[in-house]
Amino acid sequence: MGKKKIILDTNIYISAVAWGGNPDKIMQKAINGEYKIYLSVNQLKEIKRVLAYPRLKFTNQQQQDFLSFLYKLCIIIEPSEKVNVVKEDHDDNLVLEPAIDNKIDYIISGDNHLLNLKEFKGAKIIKATEFLDEVENVLPDSDKSNIRS
Questions:
Q1: Topology of 4-137 in CATH?
Q2: What is the predicted pLDDT for the residue at 1?
Q3: Coil, strand, or helix at residue 66?
Q4: How confident is the model over 56-81, as pLDDT tens digits?
């Protein structure tokens, strides 16, 4: 079984860089090579826009550093098609687009519009906490033989 393929919602990226917590844990695990993160060029533009919000108080240098970091960490894709699944907030559809062609395992979000879908193109849509609980509680078969009852 290969590395889990995941998509992170924009709110997960911003939470990771601004506040840490479970979103940051997921990013750290990706840095360590535990997951492959897929990111569309359209969502990258949205992240750039959100990083510039005055209320977040990121300097221009911090914004550029984080975007450069994402270019190195993520598999950046040009989606083969646009989707219009989330009618209430069209920006949420950007998060779904990499799942069309890439057999994504999980979409991690804090957004109810996405969470309410529960699944898209075979990818389970869950919160950061649920993702960490789920993947950390699943041991590969080879590790199960070492567990004593």
A1: Rossmann fold (3.40.50)
A2: 54
A3: helix
A4: 999 999 999 999 999 999 999 999 89
